[in-house]
Amino acid sequence: MAASQVASVAEKAFSHEQQPITGDITNFQTGDHAYANQMMKALIWDGKNTVKLVDTPRPKIIDDGDVILKVTGSTICGSDLHLFHGIVPELQKGDILGHEFCGVVDQVGPKVSRVKPGDRVVASFQIACGECYYCQKKLSSMCEKTNANALANKLYGRRTAGMFGYSHLTGGFAGGQAEWVRVPYGDVNLLKLPDDVPDEKGLYLSDVLGTSWHAVVDTGVEKGDTVAIWGAGPIGQMVAQFSFIQGADRVILIDGGPAAWRLDFVKKTLPRVETVDYTKLPKKETVTSQLKRMCNNRGPDVAIECAAGEYAKGWQHYFETLLGMETDTSELVNEMITSVRAFGRCGITGVYAGYTNHFNIGSLMQTGIRLIGNGQSPVQKYWDHLLKLIQEDKIKPLDMVSHRFRLEDMEKVYDLFNKRADGIQKVFVQTRHSPLPAKDAPTLTEL
How far is C-alpha 364 from the geometric centre of its chain's CA atoms? Predict the structure, then answer.
């Protein structure tokens, strides 16, 4: 969709009266929802490729079901880079970032009954009401009550849930890359962490673990499958780990360029993983031809996209995106469709926000490919199961965590993360409320 078309849709969409929702949809920077005399540090988006640590008023309880958390841990998600680059619609200067965080309950509203001050908890990255049709079916990412944004409703044909720190397209809720955060519907959107699960493990139940597990089970990975994964970042690494747990015989990770070092990183903990560096393929070889060669000339059974639609590999898509002729590139999806065996399954977990050109619908139809939009994972659906796997040491979140940083260093950390700096993987971001590092977790890196 051209930029002018997006603007036109937005103008028409916002001409209709929005239904009121429970949630903080005030401007994050003005902070008219906060205590006037109590301040905190928070990371805001300050324009394309720029974030800034600021002092801003602390949040307060607005609705009866609200919980105020003292944040003890947050992180940077690969999808935060889409915000950093300014490609997500409705992002405004001053918006507080961060959709993955854990903490200690500081205050609760009068209707909160499942958590109390002092409880250690992790928050779901999406905000669910717990009562609507989709919440009752444990599909919390499609909550019908927490996101009144009309542009999102127009683009996607239905409401999607609000999300922390992810622009006004997802409701305009302040994020958790801060010292305090307000959690609406606290009884629904918080999971208590037991004493044997430290923050450095429990934090990732907020998004990355649930998203990765959902990608595997929703795309239908089965015993004996060969699974190809586009993107060797933290999501791709956990998808690889979970694919083996689900019985896959082979897992092939695909990445390259500045991020190629991640292929070696993951083999340290998952030596069974096979890798393809697309930037080092022989002349005239493609990802598709390489995967066919590796898989009996048929291709893998399953392909899962864990990268995103913003990274154009060819000049055509690069310029079309630059000129506003599309919002996402179809290149990786087309590679998946042509790489898997006939009647194979392709799952899209990487973030795609709008429209794409040159999509190979012919191959999809003619060869019986199942294309599955995994959607924003309903992480709450998997919380109990994944928490148990952590406690049983069957999944190891710390395998993907490389560094621990201070919240005060986040401006520099975003720059390093954006550059795919060698060695920077999933990070743990501490605040003044954080306990000392847990056993086997990375210690603090000074910047």
Answer: 26
Residue ranges of domains in the chain, CATH in brackets: 3-207+378-430 (3.90.180.10), 208-373 (3.40.50.720)
Our CA angle for 85, 87, 88, nearest 5°, is: 120
| CA gap 238, 168 in Å, rounded | 29
The β-bridge partners of 183 are: 67
Residues 398, 400: Cα–Cα separation, whole Å: 5
pLDDT at 31: 34
* Pairing relationship of beta strands 67-74 and 101-108 according to DSSP bridges: antiparallel
Q: Which amino acid is at 26?
A: T
In the predicted model, what is the mean pLDDT of residues 102-129? 97
Amino acid at 340: V
Report CA 194 to chain centroid distance, whole Å: 24
Give the integer Cα–Cα distance in Å for 98 and 112: 24
Cα separation, 305 vs 339, whole angstroms: 12
Q: How many CB atoms lie within 10 A of CB 178?
A: 28
Tokens of 179: 């010292």
What are the CA-CA distances from residue 171 to residues 1, 131, 167, 261 (Å)? 22, 18, 7, 36
Model confidence at 141, pLDDT cuts 50, 70, 90, reads very high
User: Residue 419's pLDDT is what?
Assistant: 87
Q: How far apart are CA 325 and CA 357, in angstroms?
A: 8
CA distance 349 to 304: 7
Task: Give the Cα separation of 447 and 444 in Å (integer).
Answer: 10
Does residue 7 carry a pLDDT above 50? no
Length, in residues, of the chain: 447
Residue listed under structure tokens 């069957």: 394
CB atoms near residue 384 (< 10 Å): 10
Cβ neighbors of 431 (< 8 A, separation 6 or more) are: 41, 70, 71, 72, 73, 74, 178, 179, 406, 407
Check: CB of residue 236 under 8 Å from CB of residue 258.
Answer: no
Residue 275, φ and ψ in degrees, nearest 5: -130, 155
Indicate whether 13 pLDDT > 60: no
Q: Are 28 and 96 in contact (CB under 8 A)?
A: yes
Measured CA to CA, the distance from residue 348 to residue 16 in angstroms comes to: 31
Q: Tell me what the pLDDT averaged over the chain comes to.
A: 89
